[in-house]
Amino acid sequence: MSTVFKQQKSKRDKAEGIVAKTTEDTPVFRNKQRVLLLSSRGITSRHRHLLTDLGDLLPHTKKDAKLDSKSKLHIINELAELNNCNNCIFFEVRKRQDLYMWLSKTPNGPSVKFHIQNIHTMEELKMTGNCLKGSRHILSFDKNFESSPHWLLMKELFTQVFGIPKTARRIKPFVDHVLSFSIVDNRVWFRNYQITEKPLEHRSVTDTTDLTLVEIGPRFVMNPIRVFDGSFGGQTAFENPEFVSPNVARSNIRNAKAGRYKSRMEAIAKKDEKLKEAEMPEDPLSENNVFA
Questions:
Q1: Sign of torsion, CA 45 193 227 245?
Q2: pLDDT at 208
Q3: Per-10-residue mean pLDDT for the chain, 292 residues long?
Q4: Helix (H) or strand (E) segment spanning residue 197
Q5: How far is CA 152 from the centre of its chain?
Q6: Strand partners, 213
Q7: In this structure, are residues 237 and 152 in contact, taking their beta carbons and an 8 Å threshold?
Q8: Interatomic CA distance for residues 89 and 139, integer angstroms
């Protein structure tokens, strides 16, 4: 019926001399951001729960099976194209303990690689905050994102990946929580807060609003490693000089422990030498020598 109505309306407009405006004259912007969410093999239970929490927070995501290869990450661009996605969140796990998160604009880039630290999932935190599953959220960014170009690039990437379009199919028409991105110690701190009303006993006369924030979870810290020009590779646009690999950190800890053990062994050897030097020579008039 709608098609017949449009045809009849166009005929009537032509008869009356009304010229319809074309879409080229008035282009309409439609936010069609879709995110592919997947991980590599060897993911732990905590990392898997974090991946599930992000999938619950972002209703415009599409989940895929675990990726077998860790060296051929360009395959993810083809997977995103097959799933009709133009963004990707990829969890790369190394040695079953180190979690790296890739944020990428597929298929042309750019992409950012983060080292994820201080992970706390929703079930683990047990916060009092709560929000509707599938609802939209407000993105809140720290003013430090305006300080340098690479932070501006990450802000735009966060906006396109974590921002939920109004036309997503699985969203609810509510805005009841806030995703906060703050820069502290050259790291991005991620928090999720519920927008709720203050209790009557906690309100004061000077309050300009009766709204407050209650943390929901999850929470984690993203330490940027590199910003690439392409998707999952390409030329390095930014490299964090302060980043220390977890392997190097663990090696330093082992070397420190080995140094303490070595110094303790040297102290024991010096003690044995002092005891040997302190021994008195045997007396020739002792009982053992006289009555031998």
A1: negative
A2: 67
A3: 62 62 56 89 92 92 88 90 93 92 92 95 85 90 93 95 88 90 95 87 71 90 95 92 91 84 86 83 74 66
A4: strand 187-197
A5: 17
A6: 195
A7: no
A8: 17
Identify which of 20, 17, 15, 30 has the alpha carbon closest to the alpha carbon of residue 168: 30
Is residue 109 within 8 Å of residue 79, measured between CB atoms?
no
Q: Measure the CA–CA gap between 36 and 78, rounded to whole angstroms.
A: 11
β pairing state of 172-184 and 98-105? unpaired
Q: Which residue is listed with tokens 């030498």?
A: 273
Tell me the C-alpha distance between 169 and 187, whole Å. Answer: 33
Tell me how far apart the alpha carbons of residues 204 and 212 are, in angstroms, rounded to a whole number. 13
* Both structure tokens of 80: 């995103």
What is the spatial distance between Cα 50 and Cα 38, in angstroms, rounded to a whole number? Answer: 12
- CB of 125 closer than 8 Å to CB of 218: yes
Write down the pLDDT at residue 284: 75
CA-CA distances (angstroms) from residue 47 to 56, 70, 97, 116?
Answer: 14, 17, 9, 10
Integer CA distances (angstroms), 146 to 141, 150, 156, 283, in order: 10, 9, 11, 85
At which residue do the structure tokens 């609802």 appear?
135
Length of the chain: 292
Task: Work out whether strand 98-105 and strand 111-120 pair parallel, antiparallel, or are unpaired.
Answer: antiparallel
DSSP 60: T
- Residue 120 pairs with which residues in a beta bridge? 219
Contact 162, 139 (CB under 8 A): yes
For 208, the token pair is 């300009």
